[in-house]
Structures are given as C-alpha cells and as structure tokens.
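This entry is retained here.
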Amino acid sequence: GGGGQQTDRVSGTERRFGSYSWEEVQKHTKRGDQWIVVERKVYDVSQWAKRHPGGLRILGHYAGEDATEAFTAFHPNLQLVRKYMKPLLIGELEASEPSQDRQKNAALVEDFRALRERLEAEGCFKTQPLFFILHLGHILLLEAVALLMLWYFGTGWITTAVVAVLLGTAQSQAGWLQHDFGHLSVFKTSGWNHLVHKFTIGQLKGASANWWNHRHFQHHAKPNIIKKDPDVNMLNAFVVGDVQPLEYGIKKIKRMPYNHQHKYFFFIGPPLLIPVYFQFQIIHNMISHGLWVDFIWCVSYYVRYLLCFTQFYGFFGAVLLFNVVRFIESHWFVWVTQMSHIPMNIDHEKHQDWFSMQLVATCNIEPSFFNDWFSGHLNFQIEHHLFPTMPRHNYWRAAPQVRALCEKHRVKYNEKTLFRAFADVVRSLEKSGELWLDAYLHK
C-alpha cells in the first residue's frame, strides 16, 4: 500500500495522495491515527474525529475499515457531507483491492445498496409532516389534561396517580419523538432536525441532545458489539450474551451475583436507569463538556415543570411527583429498548457488513396499532437499524422488502410477540447468568 503517491495543493497547503491496500488501511486504527474508507476513497480522520457531529468514538469504531454503509445510513444529505470530507481525502484503494474489506459478502452488500435505492425511489424516506404534528400534539394534550385534572379535581391520591401516568406517558412518547429528530428523519436539512431535537429533548424532557447523539449513534454504528456499543456496557451490574459471561467467569470477576441477575434486574434495571444513572450522566456530561446550550434547554424544562406543579403540590411534592414520573418512564424505556437487543447476539467485533451486523443484533415485534404507538415504532427495530434516517411511519413499507432480502441471502429475520419479547429479556439474563456461574466455578 501507499504506492503511486502524488501531491496536490489545496487552499495553500500541500496534500499527498496515494493508492493503498486494505492491509495498509487496517494499520491506522488508534486514536490520533485513524483512517476510514468510504466509496473506495481513503480518508485520514485522525484530527477531524474530535469535531465530528456524531462524536469521535463512531469514527474510531470504523477506523481501519470500510465505512461506506454507515456513512450512507447516517447522513441524509450525502453530497453536502462529501464536500466537507474533501480536505480529509488522502487517496483511494488500489485498483486491485476489492471494495469490501475482511471477506464481507459483496453480493449482499450490493443487493442491500440496490434495496436502499429502490426504497428511496418509492418515497420511503419522505416525511409526512402531519404524522409528527399529531404526535407532538398528543404529547402536549396529555400534559394539558394532567394540569386540568389537578385544577378541577385537586390533589387527591387517585387524581395524583392518574396525573403521574399521564405525565409518564407524555415523557415516554416525547422520548420517541426526540429520537426521530435525533436521527435526522423528519426535516430535509440536518440543521432543522438538530434545532428541533434540542427543543424536544431539552424543553420536553430535560435532557441533552449532544449526550444522546454521542451515545446513541455508537449503538447504531456497532449494535451489541462489546466495548463499542454503550448499551451493552452494563457497568458490571449485568453480564449479557454468551461471550461476556464466559469471559467474566474465567477471569473470576464477581462484582454481582450474576446467576441471580434475572431477579435483581427488576429492582436495579427498569426502576433506576433514567431516574438515577441517566439523570446523573446527563448533568455531568453537560457540565464537564461545557454544553451550555443543552444546559439552558434542560433548565427550561425544570423551570416549566416547577412553575406548573409547585402551585398544586409545593416544592417537595412536585419533586416527589417528578421522580414518580421518571420511575414510570424508566420502566417503559427499558423494556422497549432492551426487548429488541438483549436477547440477540452480543459479541466482540466481527467486522460484518452493515446488513448482517444489524440483523444479528436486532429483532422486530409484530406490528399493531398499540405496539407501534407503545414503542414509538421501534417494534420495527430491524428496519430502523438498517435505515436510521427513514421516517418511522414508513417502516411498514420497507419491512416486506427487507424480509425478502433476508430470505434470498438466508439471513434470519426475527419477529416476536410483545410479551414473548419481554419474557426473552429475562430468559436471556438468566441464561447469561448460568453461563457465568458455570465458567466461574469450573474454568
């Protein structure tokens, strides 16, 4: 690699071009020295990684490999992004090198590219504005009904319980809505998506858009991949999949009694993720990274909440209600997000093509009006992971064609009922705990 180099002068600076082998590209994977390949062109993203809107870790996760499919999946305006990538271009793959690295299935990659082009031609990436207007409207209506109930019926126990459920539902649905804007799937321009994302996650939920972006895009870039997907980093509270439990067991790591994790999951998983862990992480992240715009949006949510509810409950009562609402939301969020991933394959990096990587790490929940609403259309998790910028109201249109491609290439397309998906979360934790105990005691 590196043969046939030439120089070019751009903006007064000298830039070297060359042709490279995959072997050469794969040497540049460490922080401060990272190359990626997009559409056979080689880019040095070592310094740009720090300024990457999706976070520096995503580029690090793809360092030394072909990132074409991820590049296409995450960016709705490819021409604009290509323009900004030009200063990073250092060359291209040698003519004798294949477009896919590490023995990826070239036929499947090509068929998936054709599928995406077909879905684009059919209008599956076009937004129906009315869908998102109505979705926002029903969130605001839930909050308004909660306040009207308190004004009309007072703060009795029954009224307070109903208000907590209404607000918990509004928060969960606002979570799905901010998810849409965060994935740039609503407006045509990224700028408008980013702006409204800050409003929905900040003013409606009291969270940080930057925190969400940097965390969630890693999950999409490398789902269920140990040390790359933050969603399978369980902070030593749980071991998941088949590989991690064996590694912990062999190393005699026992931070928790993992053979009982399917039991204590109900006490430290759904109840505490948002009220404790996320709450602390969001505030710490905004302050430590100086995310003051996000911080102001976040504060605006708490000001609005206190102004609305302290007049009924007083300060301490409003704070208690707030935590009850977060408790409800946290259960909703954990079950919906984990049902499509925790029971699936969790392993170290295997450098699979985009389609295979997403299918092995995700599963769908059968569609219905309730399931679609309850999960924010994340019951179409496969389609969402394959096409993260596709508006969610179009997943059902893409699903049959994705299933057909799976059948053609003999890739398993998993779909379950909602209750089986919930049960599989617990069953997978129990299985992983047993694998850990066996390895801990006998290896």
Notes: Residues 224 and 311 are 45 Å apart (CA to CA). Residues 1-15 have pLDDT under 50 and may be disordered. The radius of gyration is 23 Å.
